Amino acid sequence: MSDTPVVDERLVALLRADLTTAAFTVDGVAARLGPVASAALHREQPLPALLATEPGTSSRSGGPDPCGTLVRVFTLGRAVPVAALAEALPTLTVEGAVALGLVRLENGRAGFGADRAGSARQAVATCDLRPYGDDAHDWWVASDLSELAVGGPLRADHVLGIGGASTTLASWTVRRPAGRALDLGTGCGVQALHLTAHVGSIVATDISERALAYAAFNLALAASDGPGAVPDVQLLAGDLLDPVAGQRFSLVVSNPPFVITPRDQGLPLYEYRDGGRPGDVLVRSLVQQVGSVLEPGGVAQFLGNWEVPAGRSWRDVWTGWLDEQAAHGVALDAWVVQRESQDPAEYAELWARDGGASPGSEEHSQMYAAWLRDFASRDVEAIGFGVVTLQRPATDRPTWRSLDEAHGPVAAPMGPTVDAGLEARTWLAGHTDDEVLDVAWSCAPDVTEERHGVPGVEDPSVILVRQGGGLGRVLRAGTLLAAYLGVADGELTARAALDAIATVLELDAAEVRAELVPQVRDLVADGLLV
Ligand SMILES: C[S@@+](CC[C@H](N)C(=O)[O-])C[C@H]1O[C@@H](n2cnc3c(N)ncnc32)[C@H](O)[C@@H]1O
Questions:
Q1: What pTM, to 2 d.p., does this model score?
Q2: Rounded Cα–Cα distance for residues 530 and 515 (Å)
Q3: Which of 268, 300, 352, 384 qualifies as a cystine partner to 314, CB 3.0-4.6 A?
Q4: Which protein residues are within 6 Å of ligand 1, measured from CB?
């Protein structure tokens, strides 16, 4: 592929060494740019970073500034003098960077960037390359040049870099050690990179050959020099689950092209966000089909948008989808967390702008109108966004469903919460209310209580229970629940505690238990009681 980076293992190893030496890592770039320019860049405002990386602005004023040069050329998309790039990539060399398909050389303006021999040759990035990482890894991710660097609309087969949706899915992924995993719609390969940390064998698929070429490059760049250095990742081209039909995985992750896009309006159909189906059909088909590639005990996690027509709730929509899945597919537990809901105009504004059309332009207005017409044609009143986790039971036990909303901040990473939530929900589904009452639950350490009252009045009028981590739940507790949480310390069973509370408050013990058991279940499911 001529317009994507090339995997040449020798040159890639030299690039990796140079990027490491230049401290072109997440922390290194943050230190080089400083907090203000770094934060602005996260908001896609390049100007402070451009000013901070102008030649001669490094702390060693005027001296070599490899990290600044690499940010300038690969992240900000600015031409840099060939001599500066040569200093930043001393072992790969500029010729090596050209051979890898990362830069091309141009004649610059006379005098600007001229080296001692008087040459004004400049290097211009042909792709975006940024450091990325988690707590234990420094990686780099190449993708097509961003809107910021291109300065105009993107090509339809644009290969996306790491965005908010990528990091959301990476955060929510359950990171149990797993045998085989699938990354569906791998794009630049970011989810596959994360999977290399805890999965033995990975298959990454995409409908775009260009995306697969970028993923191959990024995985090669992530390899280390030691044993087991090259991750076992197979890259396959094709639509949705077609390339892996008949295979089984213990984990499937996907940040699919879930954006609902009007069809037939002559609009740009960006491959990275639009899977070629009308409405929310792509996400719905993933729900219907993904069970077929899950091994027993396997988990699938993906992001999605869903349309909510007038007169229905998002839970009605999901109940319909899951009933349809249960009728035709393998049995699956389902946990959907709606994170956001937008009205059709909010959604249209967001996605008409994405891709480079400026608000106020004729092109933007046409797209905006097309989205509104498309939603109106299906009577859509709201569009939900969220994270879907489906689990194939390891036995023939009954399945469970949990359709939750969490619109505020949640734990980061969320994977451990999802893992614990799957375990708790599975346990709850297999145990009766009596069995729940026979457990000595304790209030999780991140749970706090807030009492709000009218000044001067002793008893609070509102008691709020707040979860510090997890889904960040905040719930209003009645007197009984507040009293129970106050004594839930892992010593007394829920039954004994509730009976004691009933005695003190002179209430019927059976009624207290009946009222509290559903609340105890709810808190156990979300980890407020453990
Ligand atoms: C939103 S991007 C996700 C990229 C990356 N996995 C991430 O998390 O950032 C969606 C990817 O799905 C791919 N894609 C689009 N339509 C597809 C289809 N019908 N089947 C498989 N992949 C598709 C796109 O090429 C793109 O790389």
A1: 0.94
A2: 20
A3: 384
A4: 160, 166, 169, 185-187, 190-191, 205-208, 211, 239-240, 255-257, 271-273, 275-276
